[in-house]
Amino acid sequence: MTYAICLCNRFKVALMISIRFNLEQVGGEAPSGFTGFVTRASFLQLVKEADPALSTLLHGGYDATKRMRSFYSLKPLEYSASKQKAWFEVNFKLSEVARSTLESLLKATKKQLMIGSAEFLIESLSVKELEPRTLSQTLEQELESADSLDLRFKTPTYFSTKSNFKVILPNLLLMFMNAENDMYIARYASIPRKHVFNLRRKLGFTGVQVKSEIVRDGKKLYPGFTGWVKVRWKELEQNERSTLCLLLAWGVLFNVGSGRTAGFGVLQVEPCKKAIYK
Question: CRISPR-associated protein Cas6 C-terminal domain: which residues (predicted)?
Fold first, then answer.
């Protein structure tokens, strides 16, 4: 089956950017476990200092009066091997919100922040443009000779359905539909939905190792899973591989599933290795 993805032709593409916070821990104990909620809280507090209304938008996700979405995802706190340096990233799919956020961060006078009980000095902000198509092409080249792909869910992941039912197992169709819908809302690309269904039908799990995790935010509990799945894609035609890589690239940049603004659903994609998984 041959088909084309409508990329950028019918849309005026918005600039997508990543803001990385480069940190040095100067006090307290490093947070353990899932750090998504505490990382987001610290990020929003920084924004709030300069622009309280924007912080509210980023927290709530949608401003009905302005018809504006926040539309971002978060990569939670990570440490270097030395444990002295750390960082987290906020990736934006809409340029207007990204630009406003960056402006508010540059206005903020606060140079330190607390993540959990750890105190960090903000050493610098790194800003880069995100281009899913470029990452998609890189993935396609890296995976070209592989029969199967490894999808690694590095932070707790869950998928939501229209009935508010939460799926806490790997579900490729929900993951792909999520990315396809995101790309359309972000005015980046339009992938016919029937092609997403056809693509999923040609893929199969040949290995799965996941575990369930419960994340607590105050009194609320969020079920999810982490781990890996091995997906066979040998039977895909070239155009289908390109579509799959674009969907996966979007997931790598902007996370997958629900709760992405709190760091859920961080995804890593790589060729399948023959080594034993742990």
Answer: 151-266
